[in-house]
């Protein structure tokens, strides 16, 4: 029994120490990255003046700000900073003592964002800051593509349509959505529900050419026996770091005397071009 008790204590101490070590390592990494001078504005955009924070290994932070005069003159104020995990506290004691507490999030090696902690009474110096002297402030494209596909309502035709009433409001509308990479199907989803539903899907696609296809499964070119419309079909593509590449409206699909029953959106990663193909039919 004594040995079991001692073993449990050892496990508890080891776990606690490991947790403390992880927190210390995280704090140390976040703190070491902040060292140096960080500009308030992206210098590649050539701002007229650019304030800055400079952080030293001694725990000092210097706020340099334009004096508002005719020249390019800056005043400065020096305070201290400290970290608790990814939360940084800056204290400027000169004149009126000011304290700022913010979460530090690195967008990439050369861009950092100060965010609110969400804690009442903690005021953050929010914003994006840019490492002085960096060659680039853009996050490299990692090649991934996040495709978001959405539709508006999927309904029967409205009153006044020449096809109004061909479908029962108690009859499911069947639709299929397919994601493809270099012509190979990655994922497909089929939907079968009563009118007045929508489609919202997200898929990560790789490859030189990525596509998404939406089709009305109920379409029959031999007979006009349905009245269906899908509003506001849209697709957007982001890269793996959340930057928008493109956003397109693909129009509508409908089953009536003039039918547009399939649409395919294709994006070519190699030359940044896109195309929309459709299948139509007239009764």
Give an account of the 3D structure.
With 283 residues, the protein is mainly β. The chain has two domains: 22-131, Lipocalin; 145-282. The protein is 12% helix and 49% strand. It has an eight-stranded antiparallel β-barrel with strand order 1-2-3-4-5-6-7-8. Strands 9, 10, 13, 15 and 16 form a five-stranded antiparallel beta sheet that branches. A five-stranded antiparallel beta sheet has the order 12-11-14-17-18, with no helix packed on it. A hairpin with a 2-residue loop joins strand 4 and strand 5. It is elongated and about 80 Å long.
Brief summary of the model shown:
With 283 residues, the chain is mainly β.
Fill in the keyword field for this structure.
single chain; 283 residues; mainly beta; Lipocalin; 2 domains; five-stranded antiparallel beta sheet; 18 strands; disordered N terminus
